[in-house]
């Protein structure tokens, strides 16, 4: 019999994913373990592999569709095999898009008999419990008599995004008649558009533009940054480290004669690798920075797992170098490069972006000297790295010397990390970078 391919649920917090693009088309032969689509979860973009051998019978959700976790996105089976009648209509490249929810509604089916399990959408079940309305008392309009949110009395609470409300208002659409595809049945702009609304109608006057959906990684970033800004009383401390010796050491380690100079290893090292190594050592000495506040308790983490912010076209992703304090600079460089390369290629696993206890973000290559990074919640601190600038200082002999100086910007959660311990931690990173040979010893 035909088998379903679902939107995978990677982690308890994941509610939905986005179909980035299909790698197979309807009618193609598929082998178990073969990549059939690229999907974007709340953390990473990755390839979705088939769990079955067979033929791709139907594609339920097309490129760009946002799909709730565990919902069917495709069917695989024997060539010509029919998919179950209750399955959603396939959406092949030449097939029309699914009709709006209202158009799919058929003649309401009779209310199920007592004792029989009532078919219903997850959002409808959730609302029935919240509102105290038995599903058996509602006449369902979905396939097979399934109860939808729209089938409840009109006075039900309607949850919708601000943009969805605006589109509905402009197009004269009653949100009570729209089935939401968001978490808990929340109505989104795409739901209103599918119901007959025109998204472009939100542009006022002569000014027009193009909507970019806030979905997938972009939505996760937006939610986390808003939560960080609203819920965490943060303070940013800034210091400057003299990295003149570090620049010379890095050049020798990356030179052609590194082996003869005693710096073994083929992997090139970056300034970020040295900073990560220094931060890991400093975190071991200052465990409060490597903590998280949970209600009325502070949890000091045993592992030092440092995330590195990597900029992608879709947004920012933070792969994690685990147990960074147990690695040398070359090992850190190899791990960081591998994670960054696979992040850009979209081949990271969700686990490789989870479990971080501290984050480093480097904007020095963009010419940014100082900035105030937002904490990657639920972590307690983040280190921002600025560009290296030339500074002139008085030397030991009284003459003027040219030095290389780098800014370090530490944002910390002031609920449980006061300024003094944060300053001590930042000062320790600065000292380690200025005594850079201790980082490779």
Unreliably modeled segments: 88-115, 200-206
What sequence of helices (H) and strands (E) makes up the elements?
EEEEEEEEHHHHHEHHEEEEEEHEEEH
The helix tally amounts to 9
- CATH class descriptor of the largest domain: Alpha Beta
Spatial strand arrangement across the major sheet: 9-18-17-16-12-15
**How many structural domains does the protein architecture include?**
3
Distance between the termini: 62 Å
Major sheet summary line: 6 strands, mixed
Q: Determine the mean pLDDT.
A: 81
Count of DSSP strands? 18
User: Under CATH, the topology of the largest domain is which?
Assistant: Chloramphenicol Acetyltransferase
Instruction: Estimate the strand proportion.
Output: 15-25%
3D architecture notes:
The protein has nine helices and 18 strands. The chain is an alpha+beta fold and 441 residues long. 35% of the residues are buried.
Offer a concise description of the structure.
This protein is of the alpha+beta class and 441 residues long.
Features:
four-stranded antiparallel beta sheet, OB fold (Dihydrolipoamide Acetyltransferase, E2P), 23% strand, Chloramphenicol Acetyltransferase, 441 residues, six-stranded mixed beta sheet, Dihydrolipoamide Transferase, alpha+beta, elongated
Helix and strand arrangement:
Blueprint: E1 3-6, E2 16-22, E3 29-30, E4 35-40, E5 45-49, E6 54-59, E7 66-68, E8 72-77, H1 101-104, H2 122-131, H3 162-171, H4 189-194, H5 217-231, E9 234-242, H6 244-253, H7 271-285, E10 291-294, E11 297-300, E12 306-308, E13 310-312, E14 315-317, E15 320-321, H8 329-345, E16 358-362, E17 381-394, E18 400-413, H9 419-434
Parallel strand pairs: 12-16, 16-17
Antiparallel strand pairs: 1-8, 2-4, 2-7, 3-6, 4-5, 6-8, 9-18, 10-11, 12-15, 13-14, 17-18
Helix pairs in contact: 7-8, 7-9
């Amino acid at each position: 019999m035909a088998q379903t391919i679902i939107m995978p649920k990677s982690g308890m917090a994941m509610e939905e994913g986005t179909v980035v693009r299909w790698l197979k088309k309807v009618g193609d032969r598929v082998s178990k373990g073969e990549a059939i689509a690229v999907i974007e979860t709340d953390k990473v973009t990755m390839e979705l592999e088939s769990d079955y051998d067979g033929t791709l019978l139907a594609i339920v959700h097309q490129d760009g569709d946002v799909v709730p976790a565990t919902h069917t996105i495709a069917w695989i089976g024997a060539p010509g095999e029919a998919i179950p009648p209750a399955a959603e209509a396939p959406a092949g490249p030449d097939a029309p898009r699914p009709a709006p929810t209202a158009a799919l509604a058929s003649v309401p089916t009779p209310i199920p008999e007592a004792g029989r399990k009532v078919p219903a959408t997850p959002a409808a079940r959730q609302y029935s419990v919240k509102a105290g309305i038995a599903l058996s008392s509602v006449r369902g309009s979905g396939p097979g008599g399934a109860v939808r949110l729209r089938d409840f009395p009109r006075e039900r609470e309607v949850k919708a995004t601000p943009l969805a409300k605006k589109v509905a208002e402009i197009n004269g659409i009653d949100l009570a008649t729209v089935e939401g595809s968001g978490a808990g049945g929340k109505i989104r702009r795409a739901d209103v558009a599918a119901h007959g609304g025109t998204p472009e109608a939100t542009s006022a006057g002569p000014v027009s533009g193009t909507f970019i959906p806030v979905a997938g990684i972009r939505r996760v970033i937006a939610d986390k940054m808003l939560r960080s800004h609203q819920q965490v009383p943060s303070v940013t401390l800034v210091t400057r480290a003299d990295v003149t010796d570090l620049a010379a050491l890095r050049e020798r380690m990356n030179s052609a004669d590194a082996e003869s100079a005693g710096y073994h290893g083929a992997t090139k090292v970056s300034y970020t690798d040295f900073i990560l190594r220094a931060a890991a050592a400093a975190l071991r000495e200052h465990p409060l920075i490597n903590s998280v506040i949970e209600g009325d308790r502070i949890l000091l983490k045993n592992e030092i797992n440092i995330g590195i912010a990597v900029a992608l076209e879709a947004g920012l992703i933070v792969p994690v170098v685990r147990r960074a304090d147990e690695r040398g600079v070359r090992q850190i460089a190899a791990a960081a490069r591998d994670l960054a390369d696979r992040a850009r290629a979209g081949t990271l696993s969700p686990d490789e972006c989870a479990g971080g206890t501290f984050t480093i973000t480097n904007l020095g290559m963009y010419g940014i000297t100082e900035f105030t990074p937002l904490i990657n919640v639920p972590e307690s601190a983040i280190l921002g790295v600025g560009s290296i600038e030339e500074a002139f200082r008085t030397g030991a002999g009284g003459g003027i010397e040219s030095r290389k100086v780098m800014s370090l910007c530490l944002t910390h959660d002031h609920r449980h990390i006061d300024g003094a311990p944060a300053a001590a931690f930042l000062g320790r990173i600065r000292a380690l970078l200025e005594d850079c040979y201790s980082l490779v010893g």
